[in-house]
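User: Show me a protein chain along with its predicted structure.
Assistant: Here is one chain, sequence first, then structure tokens.
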Amino acid sequence: MELYVKTNETHLISDLSVKAVDTDKNINDKQLLNEHFHTHTKEKPYSCIECNKKFSLPSHLNVHHRTHTKEKPYSCDVCGKGFSQKGNLLTHFLVHMDEKPFSCDLCHKDFSRKQNLNEHYITHTNEKPFSCDVCNKTFSRKSHLNMHFRAHTNEKPFSCDVCGKKYPQKRYLDDHFLTHANEKLFSCEVCGNKFSYKRDLKRHYRIHTNEKPFSCDVCNKDFFQRNHLNEHYRTHTNEKPFSCDVCNKSFSRKSNLNAHFRTHTNEKRFSCDICGKKYSQKVDLKKHYRIHTNK
């Protein structure tokens, strides 16, 4: 066998019946060998015309392209759910069979996919084997790395059918779509309050349980939500990352910047439902209410 590898040139193979270097995999087709060889050289000659993302195999490019076209050629015979890859359909079918053949030998949790079991193992080892080539941030799952990488490429393959807004992750699109439907599907069993997002319901539950899982490592103050902890932490660092474009005044919270900005636009979005008087900030409306309640 003669094999020549040159930069930006095609691999030349003289014998169609060859054995790939470094493997025992027999490949009888010149094109397949060329494609397989890319897995060793890390060469990615196949580029997406939509976002320029590159792939080593044309099959991988075809699968990726479906994220742009929304094509889902594989559908479940039981529930009709569509999938862009046949492997995902086969895995989904296990949901209907309730079959979970892969078991963790440490905690005995069962999984329908071997990939999910492998990812689960990392929760025991705390290993983060997937690293971003741009910023070196590490991740425990390849899917998390792929989602993170879109922050660098600004790739947003998931778009809203209603308004066209695009998102880097499907879950963000799903959350956004509820704003059009105005659905509040998640209801609190304690007080009946309803929410559009499941994560908001989980946060709300902490009001009833008084759970405050986020603690400041400086003063040990506890908070219901992580973003509240982040905002509080700036009281220690005096960091003010949100700056007004008009007067350059800085704020530790984005909500404070938004409230301040209305002093420039004279926008008064908070209205008294008793007398109709309007205010630019909610805190001023609350003060005004005391006139009506005599408090």
